[in-house]
Amino acid sequence: QVQLVESGGGLVQAGGSLRLSCAASGSIFSINAMGWYRQAPGTQRELVATITSGGSTNYADSVKGRFTVSRDNAKNTVYLQMNSLKPEDTAVYYCNAEAVVYLPGGTNRPLDAWGQGTLVTVSS
Fold first, then answer.
1. Taking the mean position of all CA atoms in its chain, how far away is CA 89?
2. Neighbouring residues of 11: CB distance < 8 A, sequence distance ≥ 6
3. Digit-coded pLDDT (tens) for 16-26
4. Spatial distance between the Cα atoms of 22 and 4, rounded to a whole number of angstroms
5. What's residue 105's pLDDT?
6. Does residue 16 contact residue 5 with C-beta atoms inside 8 Å?
7. SS (H, E, C) 39-91
8. Which residues, in sequence order, are bridge partners of residue 10?
9. Is residue 82 within 8 Å of residue 66, measured between CB atoms?
10. Which of 36, 74, 86, 100 meets the CB 3.0–4.6 Å disulfide criterion with 48?
């Protein structure tokens, strides 16, 4: 299995910055895409940003130019640098990893793993 541990959330004033981190561990054969999603109260979970193992990135229009996703493949860690934060960025941020995990017997299978979420609150 895969465990994702997030850190870096908190309370910040509008215009401020935060950096989220998410480290994956477990019986990992490989990880393709990693990324961040968020869910505000009363809304559906939405994509924030993703990054492939090769470094290709994808961003929601609402965060382009303000957020930067990066990863350290050697550490199975993904980061989200959030600048110029707005009150509408307030949400629980979830880390996601599209992993392939080892199974007993030497086989492997894909696994879509999620972190427990970290709260980001932006005050006006």
1. 14
2. 121, 122, 123
3. 999 999 999 99
4. 6
5. 87
6. no
7. ECCCCCCEEEEEECCCCCEEECCCCCCCEEEEEEHHHCEEEEEECCCCHHHCE
8. 120
9. yes
10. 36
